[in-house]
Amino acid sequence: MNSILVIDDEKSICSSLQFALEDHYNVFTTTDPNEGISIIKNQEIDLVLLDLRLKDIDGIEILKEIKSIDQAINVIMMTAYSTIESSVKAMKEGAYYYITKPINMEQLFLLIQKAFEYESLKKEVHRLHQSLDEKNGYGRMIGKSKKMEKVYHLIEKVKDIDSNVLITGESGTGKELVARTIHELGNRKNGPFEVVNCAAIPENLLESELFGYRKGTFTGAVHDKVGKFVSADGGTLFLDEIGELPLSLQAKILRVIQEREVTPLGTNKKIKINFRLVSATNRNLFEMVQKGQYREDLYFRLNVIPIHLPPLRERKEDLPLFIQHFLEKNSQRMKKPIKQLSRSVTKFLYEYDYPGNVRELSNIIEYAVALSQNHTIDFEDLPPFLKHNHSEANVQKEDGDYIVFPIGSTLKEIEKKTILKTLEYYGGHRKNTAAVLGISERSLRNKLKEYRSKQ
Prior knowledge:
By secondary structure, the protein is an alpha/beta fold. Helix content is 48%, strand content 15%. The chain has 19 helices and 20 strands. Helix 2 (33-42) runs parallel beside helix 3 (59-69) and helix 13 packs across helix 15 (357-371).
């Protein structure tokens, strides 16, 4: 039986509503708004009949408080002073509807019935969305190709154990999403999920970010800082771009993984920690070990359970799901009608190889939704480099989207020009530039520093 709470400062109204409703619903009544809030916190309340004016208290404020406690509770406002302004304000703050006094009981019963039907419909839509998501992927991950099913199967096997996981794959394939899925679906889901991008943090700051420090340890350390290892206690620590970890830090990381304790900078006090480690890289760590660029013992500690994410070009059967997802997501975010692709654009996107993988596809659809003025996305709505790729694939000219090198250019000259032109094309955005070029942000930062020093 559904539960209804009546909040009205007139005892007679509370009594009459209880008498009228108690044969059909479990009814609570109170003339005190604070007691009403307490009832909502301690009882399963499905609907509230709330007076708009409660002595010196504005019913709208009580409505806001109810919604802050539980958005799912439907609230019907009751008022003897109905105005368009008050009704609109109540609806804006989340009221389901309003009814004027004296209350027509037949109208009220119908309104309550509609409110419960509306809530039931919302729950069913949510259930169907969840069911659809499960069919189209796993957790928050999208894709139902054979290669992705293997990834899901592996995640399902390891999500509840604490063995270290190493996720490999090209930039933009969704390695962090795999890490989050392992955390969110595993037995550590109620603990923290901490992320450290080893390539995005300058080398001299990475150690303090991971281990934390005590006040006064170095210039600028004006207060204690908790490191990411300690922050991840009870949950998961995700080390992204682990291939960029400096050799000087690799031994210290190995010790923490082995001993499950960390010593913040500036102190000898060891802190016991309980965390699950998930790492990711787009580099071949085994080759780096063979070249002496990575510690072999750390590599084997990280690579207990390897999960490889295939590039988008190897699972193109997932493209329709991704395209539809990004179209809906960006249309809703930009408050535009959901777009559709023209046949020629659809064919082109299905044939394109996506060197930037899922991240690149996401950016392409976001760009197209933002620029499209019509319901259908056509070639003029695509990013410039894609339009040229389609219509001028064999034209060689340097117009901002193409780079021409004279025969005899050295590899160093080609590398420098490629990096600087790509950085310029992406408006100085280093993360996008690094992703498209397939290098880490740290490598890009070092290259730019090198170029500046030679000017």
